[in-house]
Amino acid sequence: MASRTGLICGVSAYLLWGLFPLYWPLLEPAAPIEILAHRMVWSMVFLVALLALTRGFRWIRTLDRRRIGLLAIAAALITVNWGTFIYAVNSGHVVETSLGYFINPLISVALGVIVLKESLRPHQRIAVGIAFVAVVVLAVDYGRPPWIALVLAFAFGLYGLVKKRVGLDGAESLTAETAFVVAPALLYLLWLGSDGSGTFTSEGGGHVALLVTSGAVTAIPLVLFGDAAIRVPLVTIGLLQYMAPVMQFLIGVLVYGEDMPLSRLAGFALVWLALAVFTVDAVRAAREHRAAPAPPPADATPALAATR
């Protein structure tokens, strides 16, 4: 029952993330930076209310200088990720955002090697190599490196590394991260309002409602993902994560009619090949890990352990 609930939560989270390209354009004519500021402010409001009704705020006492520093870095990285995504979606680059989240798992592996000095299995090396070739092919097709995809992938990959070291629950961590940026965001919105260039009070009640709900839209998938992460195997989460970029790719091509010439499709096909190699390797490694015999207790030899 717990695994079924976790699977439902995981699928729901990635479905919501996959639908993001349909949501952010609804907030126009607000500019991307105004949307980003509203997202920060209303996320903070929603998260504080959520924690007040559920877990409370005792976790704040566990924040030492090291954790606070890491949370500040995480706040900067997620701001870059959010801002880039909103700009890309609202400027007709939905397909390129999907590319960023397709290559994100491979970028995370590469960052693990560079930053954490981890070693790659042979098939992981092959997957990363194919992904590098794919980025070169797409750079030739676009006439430039796919900057939006690379910024999204690297920002989110680094964000994941930092979050891993922080060791806080998703909602708690996001609340702390948002606390670093909510004051500048609020000041910016107040300045827009006083200057008359903001859209919060000038585009009707529907626009206000959409901007306010950006907080819930941000936090709800995260809460669902957190519930899934503790109930289903990591391999399952790894497979589910491809749902969002697949949906974003289809929305970009089928809903927004973005160009997909054969040269660009070839680049995406290489990315999908790299992900297939990467996923098969991850599934096989997980099965081997489960099948491996448990090590004997530290205070017993194998022979003694068998007689107890």
TrEMBL record:
Keyword Transmembrane found: yes
Keyword terms: Cell membrane, Membrane, Transmembrane, Transmembrane helix, Transport
Subcellular localization: Cell membrane
Pfam families according to UniProt: EamA
GO cellular component terms listed in the entry, alphabetical order: plasma membrane
Start and end residues of each EamA domain: 5-138
InterPro entries the record matches: EamA_dom, EmrE-like, RarD
Primary residence: membrane
Transmembrane segments: 7-24, 36-56, 68-87, 99-116, 123-140, 146-162, 174-193, 205-225, 232-256, 262-280
Top-rank lineage group of the source organism: Bacteria
Membrane-related topology note: Multi-pass membrane protein
Family that this chain belongs to: Belongs to the EamA transporter family.
Name by which UniProt lists this protein: Uncharacterized inner membrane protein RarD
Organism of this sequence: uncultured Solirubrobacteraceae bacterium
